[in-house]
Amino acid sequence: MTGFFTLLYKELLRFWKVSFQTIVAPMVSPLLYLLIFYHVLEAHVEVYPGVAYPTFLIPGLVMMAAIQNAFANSSSSVIQSKISGNLVFILLSPLTYHEIFIAYILAAIARGLLVGLGVYLVALIFFEMPLQSPFWVLLFVVLGSAILGALGLIAGIWADKFDQLAAFQNFIILPLTFLSGVFYTIHSLPAGWQILSHLNPFFYMIDGFRYGFFGVSDISPYISLSIVAICLVAISYLTIWMLRTGYKLRH
Amino acid sequence: MLPAIAVKQICKRYGNVQALTDIDLEIQQGEFFALLGPNGAGKTTLISIIAGLTLANSGSVKVMGYDVTSDYRHARLNLGVVPQELVFDPFFTVREILHIQSGYYGIKGNAHWIDEIIERLDLSDKAGANMRALSGGMKRRVLVAQALVHKPPVIILDEPTAGVDVELRQTLWEFVRQLNRDGHTVVLTTHYLEEAEAMCNRVAMLKAGKIIALDQMQNLIGKMAGNNSLRLRLLPDQLPAELQPLEINRIGGMYELRIDDYTQLESILSLLRSAQIQVLEMQLQQPDLEDVFVNLMQNDEN
Ligand SMILES: Nc1ncnc2c1ncn2[C@@H]1O[C@H](COP(=O)(O)OP(=O)(O)OP(=O)(O)O)[C@@H](O)[C@H]1O
Ligand SMILES: [Mg+2]
């Protein structure tokens, strides 16, 4: 276990040493979204009965901040050490594939939670937020960050260059995030879009997360939980398979 | 005794480059082994396969009896590798790196040994410095240190002295020799053949992905023994008729004579004396590893 804890420690230290860039800076854009949407839309929308738009928006933004940073953490760690070559020290070590996987995922979750928590705390200064069930809140943010941490690993392993990583982020992660209901409830969408949204796993993360705050959601949190859990297992298998076969890591 | 490294029938292709063909190699525990060959011969590829960094197309490799793919944990615990490329993690200091590296191998509280390696590799001044702030040669020393944190029974050094100054080269070799005396198996590649000749007991020469020579150092050099020669600068500058059949070359105003064994020296000198020719300068040329290397690489071309 020492090997695993060392890798985890190293991965945590890696972002902690530059925490201004990795934790504080990423809080800025979700808070800007909040500011802008608040001013534009506040007066007009009540999403759920008694839930005004900004209050509805905050959990979406917190979740978005968390998962995007979870993704950024594992993907940038892998691609940096792949390109600079120092990944060799992990590849030479007796760490097992599962240890490597779990250490990277936990570090991604840690960074996701820190950024998400930061956004949440700042938002609390200005808005009142209900918190029906911290359990669901924590469960969904951890699972969501884990999925995105694994996707970050996949992207970091797959990409040979930073451009490719950026493409993965812009063409896969961003659309899935923005179309998942971060900014709206899917009931406000035309029927076709609603169906499409139901195919997006990110939708269930955010919907379940929101349930934890309001006790209300578009669909049952148990269904969301099942779908999110299945996604996590599937993506974890894929990631561990990539690590085991040495895909793009061991020539 | 179990071989330290057992390579069986390894083949490796990169696209249409056949990097290694049917490599069979056994390195015994305690050996000081040189893996030599020109650029692109496949040395690094072979080392990477032994280390599990590269996967072979066919064949198997065992380190201390552990298969490097199916039993990779044990194989890697027994192996320390100094990579050829100068790689480093810019987030950490030298000492942090060495502690982290120990942790990967399951070792806690390795401070004592880490201090010793730092000192032996002359890194004490830089122990607290960030990796980014080190010169190339110092980064190379850290790579060596990283390979040694877990005291691996088998150590492989891929050109550890490239870009390293003379002083460190000597202290490095002294340290590695000490490790070898303490029972560690050492495998190295280098393009400085005198280093290999001075330290290694056995040599494999690779060319274009094949082993073209594998023998004890003395035997390899011994095979060239017919190639002793003697160089003489004479006054007057002429060779007596009796000696002319021995002449093989004239180099920089010196006659180069072929000698098959050292007893000839005596008669050559007495011939010169009776011909009243003075010897101004004399050099005895013995074959060294470089001659063997050049000879093998050229012969193989035909
Ligand atoms: N990742 C790779 N992709 C494609 N070809 C490769 C790769 N690595 C090595 N090769 C090729 O395999 C052959 C052997 O290379 P290798 O690095 O093993 O040589 P070497 O003996 O270590 O040379 P040097 O003395 O220059 O370090 C070369 O033809 C090289 O171009
Ligand atoms: Mg090489």
Tell me about this structure.
The complex is a heterodimer of chains A (251) and B (302). Chain A is mostly helical and 251 residues long. Chain A has one domain (2-245). In chain A, 76% of the residues lie in helices and 2% in strands. Chain A has eleven helices and two strands; from the N terminus they run H-H-H-E-E-H-H-H-H-H-H-H-H. Chain A has helices at residues 2-16, 19-24, 28-41, 53-84, 88-92, 97-126, 134-158, 162-178, 191-198, 201-214, 221-245; strands spanning 46-48, 51-52. The longest helix of chain A is centred in the first third of the chain and has 32 residues, at 53-84. Chain A is globular. The model of chain A has no long low-confidence stretch (mean pLDDT 92). Chain B has two domains: 5-222, P-loop containing nucleotide triphosphate hydrolases (Rossmann fold, 3-Layer(aba) Sandwich); 229-286, no CATH class. Chain B has ten helices and 14 strands. In chain B, the strands form three sheets. Chain B has a six-stranded mixed sheet, with helices on both faces. A four-stranded antiparallel sheet of chain B has the order 2-1-4-5. Chains A and B meet through helix 1 and helix 5 of A and helix 2 and helix 3 of B. Bound molecules: adenosine-5'-triphosphate and magnesium ion.
Topology:
The complex is a heterodimer of chains A (251) and B (302).
Chain A: H1 2-16, H2 19-24, H3 28-41, E1 46-48, E2 51-52, H4 53-84, H5 88-92, H6 97-126, H7 134-158, H8 162-178, H9 191-198, H10 201-214, H11 221-245
Antiparallel strand pairs in A: 1-2
Chain B: E1 3-14, E2 17-28, E3 32-36, H1 43-51, E4 58-63, E5 66-67, H2 72-77, E6 79-82, H3 94-104, H4 111-120, H5 136-148, E7 154-158, H6 166-181, E8 185-189, H7 193-199, E9 202-207, E10 210-216, H8 217-222, E11 229-235, E12 247-251, E13 254-258, H9 263-274, E14 278-285, H10 289-299
Parallel strand pairs in B: 3-8, 3-9, 6-7, 7-8
Antiparallel strand pairs in B: 1-2, 1-4, 4-5, 9-10, 11-13, 11-14, 12-13
Bound molecules: adenosine-5'-triphosphate and magnesium ion.
